[in-house]
Protein: DUF7683 domain-containing protein
Amino acid sequence: MKIVRVIEEFRKEDDYLVKEYILNIDPEKILATLDDLILSDDDYPDEIYDSYFLSKSQLKKLVPFMTEGINPNMDKFIYQLSCYEDNG
Structure:
């Protein structure tokens, strides 16, 4: 089982998931890169399983770790750091 971390792009108007951007980064590097990320009480620094809404500055810090480019539009979309199990 592999954990895949992604940035999810949701439309603000209806919370529709428009796209997922795959990240090539481990949890420790996420915390080092997003030094202002505050984890939930039930999340662990070496795992980061919960979803977190991202600010524009946080999103920009993660762009270098994306497998494809992004042109963020914070007025139209909400961006969230998430993960899921990839059983394939």
